[in-house]
Amino acid sequence: RWPARASHPPRHRMRFGTSGWRGLLHDDFTVRNVACVTQGLVDTLLDPRIHAALVQGAMGSPPLRAEPYDAARLSEQLDDQCRRWINDPARNRARGDTLALSAILERHQADFAASPFGGVLGFVKAYAAPGGPIAELLARNPAPAIEWIPFDPAVNQAPRQPAARLTRQPTPTR
């Protein structure tokens, strides 16, 4: 089950400023509003790669990116993000003669149907790592059975780092 559906309007009016979307976490930046903005961008820009970039911060979403998106490098960054997502075995994988794919791809199949991908399999083929398990499966069988990996809404958190130990430096004596 999905935590939000882009087809539902946001609960509160979203405000966009000169530097982007502004608002308060939990009031304006909600999972539902992020889903609405993501689908709106896909519908406007006709670029399904955005599904790999704007994520809901859940384990079932594409991996979180460590750097901000930059207009000058956006296409390159979207391609890189799609490769990371498609080749992440926690989110998409080859299992025997079956492709196990993210439920995000199932839910947004219509977005991936347009050129240049022609469907979910075309999108997966475009970003599967050469020689990797997904690419090898698709080379053996261009139309494999697909199993959809259920969406995991648990919060995607970075692993906790051990706290740095502070050591007291001796005070110099005079």
Task: Give a summary of the structure in a few sentences.
The chain has 174 residues and is an alpha+beta fold. The chain contains seven helices and five strands.
Draw up the topology in text.
Blueprint: E1 15-17, E2 20-22, H1 31-45, H2 50-53, H3 74-86, E3 93-95, E4 98-102, H4 103-107, H5 109-112, H6 120-127, H7 133-140, E5 145-149
Parallel strand pairs: 4-5
Antiparallel strand pairs: 1-2, 3-4
Structure commentary:
The protein is α+β, with helices and mostly antiparallel strands. Helix content is 33%, strand content 11%. The chain has helices at 31-45, 50-53, 74-86, 103-107, 109-112, 120-127, 133-140, and strands spanning 15-17, 20-22, 93-95, 98-102, 145-149. The longest helix has 15 residues, at 31-45. The N and C termini lie far apart (68 Å). Mean pLDDT is 78; it is low at 1-8.
- Taking Cα atoms only, what radius of gyration do you get, to the nearest Å? 20 Å
Give me the number of helical elements.
7
Shape: globular
Sheet/helix structural class: alpha+beta
| Distance, first to last CA | 68 Å
| Count of β-strands | 5
Mean pLDDT: 78
Helical fraction:
25-40%
| Strand numbers in spatial order across the main sheet | 3-4-5
What portion of the residues fall into strands of 2 or more residues? 5-15%
Strand/helix succession: EEHHHEEHHHHE
Task: Supply database-style keywords.
single chain; 174 residues; 3-stranded mixed sheet; two-stranded antiparallel sheet; 7 helices; 5 strands; disordered N terminus
